[in-house]
Task: structure prediction
Amino acid sequence: MISTHLFAQTRRGGRSGFSLSNLSGSNTKLPDSLLVVDSAELKSKKIIAYQLTPLLGDAYIAPMDTSIYNTSNRTLTEGKGLAIGYLANLGSPAQTRIFSERKEARDFIFADAFDYYITTPENAKFYDAKTPFTNVMYTTAGGSVSKEEQLTGTIGINFGKKINIGGDFDYIYGRGFYSSNGNKLISYRIFGSYRSDRYELNAYASNYNFVLHENGGLADDNVLTHPEDYSEGRRNMVSTDYPVLYTNVFNRVKGKQYFLTHRYNLGFTRTLEETDKDGYAKEVFIPVSSIIHTFQYEDNQRRFTTSESSSVATDTLFNQGLPFNYDDKLNDVMSYWSMKNIIALSLREGFQNWVKFGLTAFIDIEKRRYRMQDGKRDASTEIVIPDPDYSFIPPTFQSSTIRTYDELSTYVGAELSKRTGKLFTYNARGELCILGDDVGEFRASGELRTTFNLFQKEAYVKANAYIKNMTPAFFQRHYHSRYFWWDNDFNMIQQFYVGGEVNVESTQTTLSAGVESIQNYVYFGKDGMPVQHENNLQVVTARLKQNFYYRALGWENELAYQISSNQNVLPLPDLSVYSNLYLKFKLAKVLNIQIGADLHYNTAYYAPYYEAATQQFQVQDEVKVGNYPLINAYANFNLKQARFFVMVYNLSSQFVRPNYFSLAHYPLNPMMIKMGVAVRFNN
Result:
């Protein structure tokens, strides 16, 4: 049985998939039903989508992308969050500018930059479909030389009331509006579920393969911001002619994942006073307890390479100016796999009127293996970099030795929750590593929530908090490659967060605020190396979402204000804003039309630089990014089960000074026309 409670996405996810913020709630409607439509509101509720809570696999209703409005906005990378920095192309490495949205670093940190494109047990959707359904979307932007395309699809079929199988895929191919920044992302998943009173099962197998052509950003930002002052005097250059730091360098990140969670419910049958159509008393199964098993296996590999021998390459590799200086072709390879098994016993909430809460205890056993090249440093030759304040002694590999690291950890934990009712719900969970390489690591978090009616509509107030003591990610501690090499003995990271949220549906208002304190924060410094900040670091975040609707007019707004106690260690924009103004109406009573424009804006700050050699976002103090209004004009159309749109992206570049950088030295795409069509088949 699928729970009818709607849970927000976990705020911070980590290696063990544990995070409790926003997991509980009794609201069956989304705060903004215009932006995202609850799948339960589809015609006759023929299709229900649901997701699973971390580790234990409790099902909850999840939204489907079926809204007839704002279709074009959601196809952009910017549409995946309030404020996101990325490398221009759809599917390129990205990082949210809102710190409260950042997840814990994976042990395989090279996948962190692709969070928006990788399926995990926390974001994977499953379905219950009374009739077979298929959703397909295709989008395209730009001309033949720099075209950016995406094709996504989902299919789901029920076999009877208990079994559902299906699959989804996502294909992104961007040739790139700048030299050497194309990418190709392919991912797919096969999933299935079985749900009965006694036994429930959800499983999937997924695979992804991402290839990126890396260019290190612009070699000279002035070619974009001050073309009239550019040394070559070429004012009419197209974006593909802009000089970049390097060419013929590639990153490939690939992985596969197998996930299974199932449970057996113990309980009894209760006879109801109601009768069926034949006059027999109805019976319903009441689950009292559950035996739960979750299995997860993932296997990842990252390869950093060049398409030609370094002995003939003339470009520098990245912004530190480290040259190709070996005869051998660059070929850094790192791999990782992990396997976890979770066994849990659960006492179910509400099997008797006096049982007002659920209680679950679990044990989590994780095995992890890492492999990367190993060798010895040869300090006999020192490369002197043009900057006299910086020099680098690269590792010289004396052999092709591959080093293997094995880690094993055992966690125990418990969860206490009350998820039914409107007046008062709560959820609390804690886990502790008692054996293995992460011994002493723990996480504890919880949420309190109350729901009430205000002006005949629902409103809620919630408070949430967590405390964590975490082992830094493996590749933050150990990393051996051609241009970067470290073995760090980092201390555990301590994080404490407390926050709250108020949502008033009658006024379309959501207000939230939180304070986070971090000790031993790990970040990547200006030299591309991981650094542990031993002093305490604080982040204060306040967010407001306010929408206005009057007849055909809609105006949606969201802003976030952040304060970082140390901008050198954790640079964040003070203010991030999103605003969307539009008109919506019907033509000939069948064609829904939405015409408008939206704006993304953040104040200037020292945005991070994406380092291709490590695939990490590192701090820099050379240039500020921001203070540029990204304006997109669009028209969305809906005709029965088909949606289509046309958009002018980065229209503001035509009348605002062209300073549209997303990250340090990485600009957004120039103005382009984007089009797309989405079709849903329910038969």
Q: What stands out?
A: The chain has a mean pLDDT of 85.
